[in-house]
Amino acid sequence: MEIIFEPMKKSVSIQSVKTILDLAREAGIALRADCGGIGICGKCLVKILRVGGKLTPPTNNEVTALGMQRLNEGYRLSCQTKLLEGNVEVFIPPESLIQRYRSADVGLEKLVPLNPAVTFHRVLPKKPNLVDPQPDVSRILVELYEQGIDVDASPIPLELLRDIPEIVRKAEWDLNLILWNSRLIDVKPYDNSFKPIGVAVDIGTSKIVVHLIDLASGETLAVESTPNPQASYGADIISRLTYAIQSNENLAKLQRAVINAINILIKKASERTSIPLDWIYEVVVVGNTVMHHLFLGIKPKHLGFSPYTPATRGPHYFNAKELDIDINSKGVIYLPPVVAGFVGSDAIADAVAIGVDECEEPCALIDIGTNTEIIINTGKKIIAGSTPAGPAFEGATMSFGMRAIEGAIDQVFVYFDKSLSDYAVRYNVVGGKKPSGICGSGYIDLLANLYRLRLLNRRGKFAREIKSSRLIVENDLLRFVVAKAEETSIGRNIVVDEKDIDSLLLAKAAVASGFKMLLRYAGLESNDLSRVFVAGSFGSYINMENALTIGLLPNIPISRFIFVGNAAIVGAKAMLKSKEFREKASKIARAIEYVELAAQQEFSRIFMESLYLP
Known about the structure:
alpha/beta; six-stranded mixed sheet; 15 helices
């Protein structure tokens, strides 16, 4: 049996019955599977071009998601369809692929005095002779002591110990010594062009960002990013957690996916700057707690069940070879501490980047994503919580939802056109082409506009008494047409229906109630907040006025909101460049009081209230 994927022209020989989704993964094709492959999101769509055998019949989930007309046209959900015998050729539409999307790869840079863990020193020890036959290592260390350099005398790694005799003689005793936290980790022949390089990595649920840093100057040399390939196993962390705990094989797949992606990004950055991989001696990795565990290959089983306990807090450091990270084999991978099951080292990096511990008046930090993290400095203590907003704001679970890739409607303005005596829509499309769907910022605009115009009531239901050519009934659902079929690249109306709005309101309620609950726990009112730092890609692109209209964020003056972009990568870079900032991160992590929001007495009531538009 064989399957051929078009237009990639990739094929896979089939040894056992598997879903088309699994076969696509084997072919290295990153198909969307926002629901984790359980057949409810409808995003892993493929079209059967030719069947020389037998496929499984459409499942109930496929009938619900696609309808009989599309099934008859040859469309199937790849997660539900299996080839039982023979061969098949399938076409993968562009919208079914995980693609690069617009996001914040950088943030507001922080001035960091250089004091990296990785340092290098030139030494010229004297050659041994019969009068002075000191061991090679002793000669090297004495040179460092004489330069006033503090050296940790702990055992030198065996791999390095084996190499030293040949290296020092080949270099004729003119050497570069590489230290990590005052420990000798490498010895190299002196090279005037050499400079130690570090890498900062932010493993987001949706995207991985890598910055290449010159540790001698602090300069950012290159920035690379890619969609997180784990998204093929589920758009949100709960889907991936569920997949990972099913078997050790699944856990290994998720770990390998993220490590391969990081290695590819590091290699791209290296090639772009002509920096040898061998010069990279440290990588600082931040991410939420599930991403942290999956990166380390720790089964995240107990993160999925109350009391949501991490296997470890950290900080941790490992040899690069232990994790198969393609840098110098003697390099170090450093992971800052996590706080709790769903407040990870990315939140700590955010806090470091904005100096949340330095606020003299109450301030807050929010990173909106599939798992939204909130930190509040009350002026007396720092508290943190998380809330599962889910992937609705990233397009998953929505009829025409997509990430902010080319073809996504990212801004929407709905108005009543008197010349037409009807409602009209203006929108912006990422890339300037015909639209194929709507991304999160577009959905927030749409929800706010429809509510302002009273096309929606507080419960998110359409006003059925209003007559408009844009309010149509399809499959027994009332829908609002955002872009008409002739305007789109997919030849169909792009619409929003009440199911979509319900998903948006659930995500909105999760964020809003989490913020309200944490403020209540702190004994604060929203107006007590002097500043609210909004971090992350999603927060960088939303229209704040519209976000306040739907009640997503606290109703305070817009001037108090500060957009900081990808603060996690900024914090990771600060820790890469400064040992003091590492200690600062650990201090913040120890100081934070974690609040399990869902366990609070009033949470259910506040969540239900937040389901309404204000």
